[in-house]
Design brief:
The structure holds three protein chains of three kinds. Chain A is 66% helix and 2% strand. Chain A is built from 13 helices and two strands. In chain A, strands 1-2 form a two-stranded antiparallel ribbon. In chain A, strand 1 and strand 2 form a beta hairpin. Chain B is globular. Helices cover 27% and strands 28% of the residues of chain C. Classes of the chains: A mainly alpha, B mainly alpha, C alpha+beta. At the A-B interface, helix 3, helix 4, helix 12 and helix 13 of A face helix 2, helix 3, helix 6 and helix 7 of B.
Chain lengths: 322, 254, 177
């Protein structure tokens, strides 16, 4: 339906054709849609879905790496890791505000996360089993996220695009510190080399799944692309990721756990094997290795913090400071 | 300074560094688990600052001992047995609830202000220069922790009760701040401030401030833990965890 | 007030004394002092601030160019005039920047005045913020507030020379060569 003309889409979405045409013309001119501007209800709904999902991913994403802060093996790595997890909290904060400009309150979004209604990136439902996993998350997971986020930094919704510009800048630090760790350890002692190989072996496939289902199975893509929210598809981004990572990991002497991986001269692409979509859906639906643990940790922080938040609200109310 | 005095100052600085390191380590445990997202960010900043300061003090100690300043901090942190750390029990105690962590940070920061002001007048110039830098960062910590202590002290009945309980628990350990640091007695005048004098000024300041926040310092009857060679039962576990990965391969460049 | 939904404060930031004051985002906070502290930790984690201002979102009056073009009843001029800081978004990609101050009896009146005062600039969206509603970081405290970020070079991606490292590995060299 989304190759269709604006009249037809207006009927499908019960929007006024004239308003919708104006809106699409603004996007075509490269204008940013701002809070308070007219937008189709479906545009608002899709953005809230994407932004809140992204915000939740940052917040839950603090946990797998945060678990290693107390064990980081040098002062430098410890500082880097704390700063990185701190950035993730910052990104969550920017994104909750971006979603709020569309009318979703932080309270509603938190409630949706804690009740299990809201989704977040399923990658964070895997365990970080060794220290080197932090390097793999930086290089692979953050590297994958950056491809998506660079695209979203150009998206048509002003507040989301501005949040993304800032996030991308900071994510580059995340990716590079992870890559630096993996490169060094891959040239390091036998213990370190074994540790990075094991980490990459475990994180490779879950990272490829991060880009989401194949384009054919991605129901939202058409409208998102038409309205300038996304400009590239899941499969395009996934291919670019493999093209970037495969030669670099090989240059480090790290093997990628995919017997079908090979360079295709004709297309210039690195072709890869079949993704285990059963695992993908299982983890998304809550049956990943650490789903329950992640939610329990968030719930605990929320419950333990209630008296603190209440105290601050009470103080502000008593003192009428604004 | 002669060699003996240099060694004494190094010992003093390592104790300071150990305090900062262990406090930063404890604070970093909140990252991802704070009561509100904004505070995940803010408390991580405090941890980053404290650990950064620890590194500065270890490096300065290395200079005094004539050893490699690039390697010395990690050797101290990751390859020293728990018994050889000279941190106060105040900073080793588990993070407790938010009241406990915030109040500990406040008490520590308020003391640091006095100590750093003294150190910034040290006749050992490299020490004075770093003290000025560190004091600058600690000023912001104090603003942050004071804002929090006031709000939690005057917030709700529950927050007030939790803060008072935290204060009662922390006070005996906080007295350790006033004990002379290792090496202090062997240093000539003008290098470092006298800890006992700092303690008196600190006590005046925090009693007044805490009173405004509806909190009362407990009497002096409780046990005071001031000996830096004696560690709490929590220290060995903390150090084992901190050193776990580094010790997997002591030869490795982590 | 619920315990997970605090009021929103808008954050304005000046990167350096010779740079414009820009709207940079929002924070939630129980009160304005905490809003300023949160703004510092959220937006100045890296060396990019010399001043921060915060104001409660509900004290800000906002008008888009379209809203003004559609016309609205003349704003009331009754009441004590006060100083408003006027911010304008000047381009699609831009953040709102501080244009100047006007005296007016209300936010709407301030924007009406500003349209004439700053008419040379094509403003897409106006914001009028009462000066009295702004909490500004104290210039005397700029160092403790913003200098610490400068020391944290490990937050800068330039600290990680991965491109050079990969080049060496591809050339079959060691990292320390």
């Amino acid at each position: 339906m989304y190759g269709a003309d604006v009249e037809q889409i207006a009927i499908e979405l019960s929007e006024e054709p004239e308003k919708l045409a104006d809106f699409e013309a603004r996007i075509a001119r490269g204008e940013k849609i701002e809070p308070g501007d007219w937008m189709p209800a479906e545009y608002r709904r899709q953005l809230i879905r994407m932004i809140s999902q992204h915000a939740h991913s940052e917040v839950v994403g603090m946990l797998p790496e945060g678990a290693w802060i107390t064990r980081a093996p040098s002062l430098r790595r410890k500082l880097i890791l704390i700063a990185k997890v701190q950035d993730e909290a910052g990104h969550g904060q920017y994104l909750y505000h971006a979603a709020e400009t569309l009318g979703a309150t932080r309270e509603e979004m938190l409630e949706a996360l804690l009740s299990g209604k809201a989704k977040y990136s399923s990658i964070f439902n895997y365990h970080t089993t060794t220290w080197a996993d932090n390097g793999a998350i930086g290089w692979l997971v953050d590297g994958a996220a950056i491809l998506n986020q660079t695209m979203l930094a150009r998206c048509s919704y002003g507040p989301y695009s501005r949040a993304m510009v800032r996030i991308c800048m900071e994510e580059n630090f995340h990716r590079k510190q992870g890559q630096e760790m993996i490169i060094r350890y891959s040239q390091g002692t036998p213990t370190q080399r074994a540790m990075v190989q094991d980490a990459i072996t475990r994180w490779w496939w879950p990272t490829l799944m991060m880009f989401g289902p194949h384009d054919a199975d991605s129901p939202n893509s058409g409208l998102l692309i038409r309205w300038g929210i996304k400009t590239r598809t899941n499969d395009q981004l996934r291919q670019e990721f493999v093209n970037q990572l495969a030669p670099d990991l090989q240059a480090c002497g790290i093997s990628i756990p995919d017997p079908d991986l090979r360079y295709d001269e004709a297309s210039g692409n690195w072709l890869f094997g079949v993704i285990d979509w059963d695992e993908f859906w299982r983890v998304i639906k809550g049956d990943g290795p650490a789903n329950a643990e992640r939610m329990a940790a968030r719930q605990q922080a929320h419950d333990d913090g209630r008296w603190v938040r209440e105290a601050l609200s009470a103080y502000a109310a008593k003192n009428q400071i604004q | 300074m002669n060699a003996k005095q240099k060694a004494a100052l190094a010992e003093y600085l390592i104790a300071l560094a150990d305090d900062e390191l262990i406090l930063g380590h404890r604070n970093s445990e909140w990252t991802g688990h704070a009561p509100i997202l904004e505070e995940d960010i803010a408390f991580a900043n405090l941890a980053l600052d404290e650990i950064g300061h620890a590194r500065l003090w270890y490096e300065l100690a290395a200079d005094l001992l004539g050893v490699d300043r690039a390697r010395f901090p990690d050797q101290q942190v990751f390859f020293r047995p728990a018994a050889d750390f000279r941190s106060l029990q105040l900073v080793e105690l588990p993070k407790g609830d938010w009241a406990f962590s915030m109040l500990r940070q406040y008490l520590f920061d308020a003391f640091e202000q006095h100590r750093l002001t003294g150190l910034s007048e040290s006749s050992h110039m490299p020490l004075a220069e770093i003290a000025v830098r560190v004091r600058n960062e600690e000023l912001y910590h104090l603003r942050h922790t004071r804002a929090w202590v006031t709000r939690l002290g005057l917030g709700t009945e529950e927050s007030q009760a939790r803060m008072q309980a935290a204060l009662n628990a922390l006070c005996p350990y906080a007295r350790g701040l006033g004990a002379a640091l290792p090496g202090e007695a062997d240093l000539p005048l003008g290098i470092v401030p006298e800890s006992a004098a700092l303690y008196a000024a600190w006590l005046d300041e925090v009693s007044a401030f805490l009173a405004e926040a509806g909190l009362k310092l407990p009497g002096e009857t409780a046990l005071a833990e001031t000996e830096r060679r004696a560690h709490s039962e929590h220290m060995a576990a903390l150090i084992a965890e901190m050193q776990e990965v580094a010790r997997l391969d002591p030869e490795a460049e982590w | 007030m619920s315990d997970t939904q605090w009021p929103r404060y808008e954050v304005f930031q000046q990167e350096a004394p010779d740079k414009p004051v820009l709207h940079n985002g929002s924070v939630h906070a129980p009160d304005i002092e905490m809003a300023l502290l949160n703004a510092r930790d959220v937006f100045a984690r890296r060396p990019e601030a010399s001043q921060l201002w915060v104001a409660a979102a509900e004290r800000i009056t906002s008008r888009t160019r379209e809203e003004l073009a559609a016309g609205e009843p003349a704003p009331s001029t009754a009441g004590e005039p006060q100083t408003y800081c006027l911010f304008g978004k000047l381009a699609q990609q831009a953040q709102a920047s501080l244009l100047g101050e006007v005296q007016a009896a209300s936010g709407a009146a301030a924007i009406a005045t500003a349209q004439t005062d700053f008419e040379a600039q094509k403003v897409l969206r106006w914001w009028a913020v009462p000066l009295a509603a702004l909490l500004k970081s104290d210039p005397a405290e700029a160092d403790p507030m913003f200098a610490p970020a400068r020391e944290k070079t490990y937050k800068d991606q330039a600290e990680y020379p991965v491109v050079t490292m990969m080049r060496k590995l591809r050339a079959g060299k060691r990292l320390d060569e």
